[in-house]
Write a structure and sequence with these properties.
homotetramer; alpha/beta; TIM Barrel; 8 strands; 9% strand; Dihydrodipicolinate synthase (chains A, B, C, D); Aldolase_TIM (chains A, B, C, D); schiff base (chains A, B, C, D); 4-hydroxy-tetrahydrodipicolinate synthase activity (chains A, B, C, D); lyase (chains A, B, C, D)
Chain lengths: 310, 310, 310, 310
């Protein structure tokens, strides 16, 4: 894979589990086939939507091996190397690249209190030891810092970073990276990807190279269509498609907030939808997430039906 | 070890590193001897001050094996099992107990967005699988949630938790756990430990069972003396000793905030002090922390001198 | 004014001050003329960019009277009624409407810790007593809560709110209000305005009715042009114009962060730019904001020159 | 009043309201008599517990005039001058001192994004214009910044501040101000007061001069007794009394969090308790706070009964 591959729709692939919380490889491969059939352009395994934070090292390795082996180079496989600090991330980088990942996706340090200088140092050390391109993953809701645009651009100019995956929800900051990268003579082939599945049309309009939509697990055809419409400049049709997907995204709120957090609800809904659509065998999520109730699952079904997916 | 052992001074043991960032076992064992000679009552390895977030699984195992083997039951060894979620924590629990830990110390889930119900579920699953007692580690600055007092008390009453290590800095909430545990008929043998090294006298006065002071690496004698004075009800002398230690703690601010975060400065200062005192061979901290400058190290020396430690 | 007037460019009008920090009415009226000549569609006085939080009640009244009297109905004048809680806001509503405001702009309660039920109650009481339409002002950076989309839509459906001015920077949440208002049969004539001056093209593309750009003080012609291009569906040209304005916006960072906060820097830069462009007599900002240095003002001038405004 | 008066128990006085939300002066004066009879050493009107954020300027003035006139110099009356920024605060300073306040209590700027340099500037300007001593009010939960200890000490050394009222809950930071003020040759007569009503014994043990307990409205005798015990060095008895007060404080949680915020619950409970104890005529709180239900009020009564106050 070259870094220029990082365009189009690259969904963060859910990790189907068995009822006893082991990786369900057959379901995982059916999910991959479902995504490829949907027209996606790459796969991002071991992201936040993949429950990477919940998987053991063995499970993570199994996911990458299974997916990379299955697609065998047809489309790029990015793999998260999600951990607290540099040495631990380097362990994951070694593991996932040995297992076949074409690029690694790395957040700012977390748990540790961090500083822009330490974030930059982190990426420099990781990239120095990585055999594949490094994608910065900006996800403040998880790591509690925002990657500063100037740090991203400096690292891009120095060849440390091949891409940014922005899940911050801050389109103005995202645009600063897009225009900064375009204006900077020293930056070439840097991809800027949005993880904000509800404003893909807007992100592509401001210059994003691609999108990493969690909801793309449930409706990959929809995100592929949205991507095509935006690239064709069919903005009105794109907006209609995006709004259909926004309505579908409402499923993430089915979980009762008195009983579970927003993550349990969102991941639970995506997996319930994949189960209802017949893609995966079991909607289980990893511990300590709280499972959806039967009523909540039925509400997921209504979202699917309203979007024409059941 | 029984849970009733968790009283007195239980410092979070720094992890000395070599210049190439491997665990320096001889220095680590000298540090342990220094702490034991200082009169501490237990050891907490793989805590935040130990740079657990920065150590690989192999390094973590080596730390526990080395320390547990060295002290061989003379005093209890608690080990952090610091990771994002349940399954990953369980891996660390298995590893550190195999390596000799007498208890495990576990935070709320992090990276994942969490909910009190998920926190409780996390501790229940971890305790269900742990061969040793589980200590809850409340450290909002790292995990970005505060352990609710009612969750702690419910888990203590159900025998899930053996102790709380509170690094939240919130003495009123700490007191609620102390008095709640005392008032609850179903809670026996539950230890409440403070990680707030600047208000140990106050925490013991409100009923804490013990203290986990990062600065105890630098001056274990001081914290042992403080503990004795408080237990003897010598509050005025205790306050004088505590204030001496507070002044010494000023070393954590030597690092230039324009160049590094507060963690790099604090851990860097503790290690510089241990190096200056001749306890460890090298003051290196793990990546991506920024090292102290020579000037900053000299300022650490002045703090030591002012406290009568050089 | 009817609520359907709330479309197009409605800049938050800066409040020029004399060197002794009194409202400089002649400069204020020249600024209004500059904005009207630039093609704006309405004026928002006493917003955050207007330093409403810094002005006394007398100064606030003078601003509204001066501006409303000057424009005398040519275009709508919205006025902030920025205060902590309901009774205090009602005092400002009475004052600014007596002074000629056509609508009032009201944030969630602040200082007080608040709850969605209390936010809704706040708007219901304010609207019940206001002689003019009420615009909700969503500005989490100032009030530290985000207005929930479902609360906004409920209040819009009940006729409590005439519009939303969204300065949260969260385009996905903004879109939820836009599409929710459109889909709701009970909501008519509700305007959704964005305060995110760096993504006006994107906000209009997702369905915003108008924009409230602080930078519009400096370059009203640019924002009027951008608005026209977007309404004409000239998205490529709109993007070019927006990117020019984004570059100009860089002026808000001229202030040294070691010496002042981001507000001092941003408001200081806007006023310095208006002074350099000859619109206002004095660039002073209100206490306790820190003034820009001469060097920093010169950097503002370079931003103006680069954007073709000097 | 001289600044040396600021010791002992200085409760933030609740503001009784009539059913139509006007200040109920007879109830207010009965409350003052209740506090004086309870043995308090000063009164703090227009603080957070006084609902200052909810009162109009006229209501604020009425409160100060009524209370200052009633006590006529028997004990010092501190008054909050709670507003967003400097010029607005100065207006309140003029009003409350004209109405008889002996000192003013001022927070960091809020709503505006602020910086330590701006906070210092704010206090310098306010103190320069205030005819009475200025007390810094550290209340991060309301203003969303913490007053840095070094800023406080610098301002104390320069004679800008007469005292600190710390409602941050951070006893370690509080201690830094206490010991810093004691160690600094240039600081004399500076009072350090805690607003943390659950750890008064601890705060006095570390060197606080006094306490500002919201719960002191409900049980002034308890806080006066606690203050005496601490000053006498009767720490065990003090702890028992403090724990009784902590249990009583549980009343602040009676309000259903699904229906109201923590402020509505806490202020509502204090006023319900004062009503049940026969001190005030009506337990109403200001808009937009949500009133307690009848059931919730009954639970307040149970807390009173358990503490021996009914």
């Amino acid at each position: 894979m070259t870094i220029t591959s990082l365009t189009g729709v690259i969904p963060p692939v859910c990790t189907p589990l068995t009822p006893d919380r082991e990786v369900d490889v057959p379901s995982l491969l059916r999910l991959v086939d479902h995504l490829v059939a949907g027209g996606v352009h790459g796969l991002f395994v071991l992201g936040s939507t993949s429950e990477a934070a919940y998987l053991t090292d063995e499970q993570r390795r199994l996911v990458v091996e299974s997916v990379a082996g299955h697609v065998s180079g047809q489309l790029p496989v990015l793999a998260g190397a999600i951990d607290m600090t540099t040495a631990r991330v380097l362990g994951h980088v070694a593991a996932v690249t040995a297992a076949g990942a074409d690029a690694v996706v790395v957040t700012a340090p977390f748990y540790a209190r961090t500083h822009p200088a330490e974030i930059a140092r982190h990426y420099r050390v990781v990239a120095g030891a990585s055999p594949v391109p490094v994608v910065a993953y900006d996800i403040p809701v998880a790591v509690h810092t925002k990657l500063p645009a100037d740090v991203i651009l400096e690292l891009a100019a120095d060849g440390v970073l091949a891409a940014l995956k922005d899940s911050s929800g801050d389109l103005a900051a995202f645009r600063r990276v897009v225009t900064g990268a375009r204006a900077h003579q020293g930056i070439t082939g840097f991809s800027v990807l949005t993880g904000s599945e509800l404003i893909v049309d807007a992100a592509l309009a401001v210059g994003a190279d691609g999108t990493v939509p969690g909801l793309g697990n449930v409706d990959p055809h929809g995100y592929a269509r949205l991507d095509r419409l935006c690239r064709a400049g069919e903005w009105a049709e794109a907006r209609t498609e995006q709004e259909r997907l926004c309505a579908l995204f409402g499923m993430v709120t089915v979980g009762d907030p008195a009983r579970m957090g927003p993550g349990s609800s969102a991941i639970g809904a995506f997996k319930a939808a994949l189960h209802l659509r017949g893609v995966i065998d079991c909607p289980a999520t990893a511990e300590p997430q709280v499972p959806l109730s039967q009523d909540e699952v039925e509400r997921v079904g209504k979202y699917l039906a309203a979007a024409g997916l059941l």
